[in-house]
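Let us begin with a simple case.
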Amino acid sequence: MVARIIDGKVVSAHVKARVKKAVGELKESGIQPCLATVLIGEDPASATYVGSKQSDAKEVGIATRDHRLAATFKQDELVELVQLLNKDHEVHGILVQLPLPKQINELEIMAALSPLKDVDGLTPYNSGMLQSGMGLLKPCTPSGIMELLDYYKIDVASMDAVIVNRSNLVGKPLALLLLEEDATVTICHSKTRGLNEKLRNADLVVTAVGNRQRFTLNADMIKEGSIIIDVGTSRHDGKLAGDADFESVKQKASWVTPVPGGVGLMTRAMLLKNTVTAASIAKEMSK
């Protein structure tokens, strides 16, 4: 068996086309969807991420506002900026690039964001709505994974799914989304006992460790015909790679996502979708 590729390029292009159409319809009704980005400090990776998100937005017709702040920016100053953006009717989505500097309390900033403009889906309110099965603005990576599975008509109902990640960004929200689709979900992490046994019994494996020295998923760790969603990114042998030993895993799995070209592109596409959703919500509330 050689696994079929779950192609993030194809699916993200499909999402972007839908978003571009929705942006056009909103513009016709007098609304210009707008995404405000906030970056504190000069971390090269974060700057690259923000730049790519702004480029994506421009591609589909979403306006952007770029706020680049010094690494010394204070907690109260950031709260004040967020509150100003919350009140700005021309801004529909707010993205505060994570991680934040040590002097800033991330939870407090997330709590200060308007849930209606929280395009990362990380505010306490949106996290609670997701847990209740009523989420509108959902975390981008988990919702991107669900979009991939849906596009390729991979039905996860009754599957045993193992997620190797317990973060608020990926593992926890993805578990909730998979449960909504009737999968049976196990979340694993660095303290999990018998990890390899759990992986070998899984129909669906989602790995998001991002450190090949600590964890590498290979063919011996999965069962024949399983589905592998690789979220991890790190440098391996001088190249960008995921958690999975791709050449090994693809000989045993039925479906697999590549890195690059898989989940990462979907994360960016779902941010655009969330921005348009936020603009549509604002339109309805203004009636």
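The second case is a distinct protein. As before, the sequence precedes its structure tokens.
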Amino acid sequence: MQEQTYDTNIEATVLSSIIYSPALLETYNSKINKKLFFLPMHLQIMEIVLDLFNTDKLIDEEIIKNKLGSQFENDLIYILTKNPISRLDDYLEILQDYSIKRDMQLLALDISKNLSLGVSGIDLQAKVNNLTTELNSKNQLQLLDIQNISSIEDKEVEFICKEWLPIPVRTVSLVTAPGGTGKSWFVQQFAIRAIQEGKIKKAFLWLSEDPKEISKNRFTKVFEKVLNVQDESVKSKIDISDSPTIQFLYDDQRRVEVSPLLSHFKARLQEYDLIVLDPLIAFYGTDENNNSSARRFMQLFTDWANKENKTIIFIHHSTKNTTQSRGASAFVDAVRTVYELDKIRDKDGNVKESNKRIVKLTKDNYGISHLLGSFQVERTLFPINIKHTTVEFTEAALEFGMPTDF
């Protein structure tokens, strides 16, 4: 199977974004160059845009159209129909990777040609060294963001839901619990409280294990009966999905690969600053107990959270008969905060009927225990006691073919 070395849709999206927002060139000037573009038309348009930018002239679709010529008007219109995005990092990374692969293909062809011409091994090695040096100079990778410490702004850790159950912003956190504990009730209340605080502008909850109608039913009960929220505008800032999940890391012929859909997913969720993904394992498509793969998976999201100011919460199943995170320890190692939910029990270990749950803070890198005053607290998750709630949702579960747990 031939390796893909270009994506014209991504090229068109980048061009559209720059034409609509020329200021992006100031942000990404060091990363944008003509070599990123495979399609000759896209390359020509980029040359025009860069020339206008470098000569401080207006970047406008009419000016670009005039320089291209009327015969290319439809091509430009097609590009402008692409939805522009405000952060190009992921798309530019993909295009740079494709550009390097194209250069490698040319290098391989050149080596093959010289082999067929009978070039000596020493001369061939020298030629390869020269070519790779040239390619390395053209494809400088920004491996590190190095900055002098005196130029960095000093900031304290910020939290959302600081008065309830604090979660640090711009990080990835983990919430674990056994089945039937109330994880979805927990995250919906968290999202409502975060929006009410005002620090979060918009929240997205991918609650893949329940039909959206069940999630809405729970949301309404939390909104009206647990929190008694009067501000209806809060609802307009919380979106959910029950769509089939995407495995962002997966096995492919004995190799672990990152899904190309991840960049599209991140672009789709650009407007949300709180993102809840439930359950973690549904987005992770390889060996759950492999620490190397788990670390790689979590790094994808910690980088995203830090670079784009996202607060990400994974909901994760616990190991059997415990509240502890299931699978590789790297899932826990990679996050800054871990909460474990558990049912309230009497002194003999029997579950007590209650609309509350015990919440244990089992990983705390940012001093949350000082805010809570403890590593273990009780929080109200349900509007009525568990016995009544179970009866109430049995009917709904039967209607949607769902289990009767929470």
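Residues 386-406 have pLDDT under 50 and may be disordered. Residues 89-116 form the longest helix (28 residues).
Keep these points in mind for the review questions at the end of the chapter.
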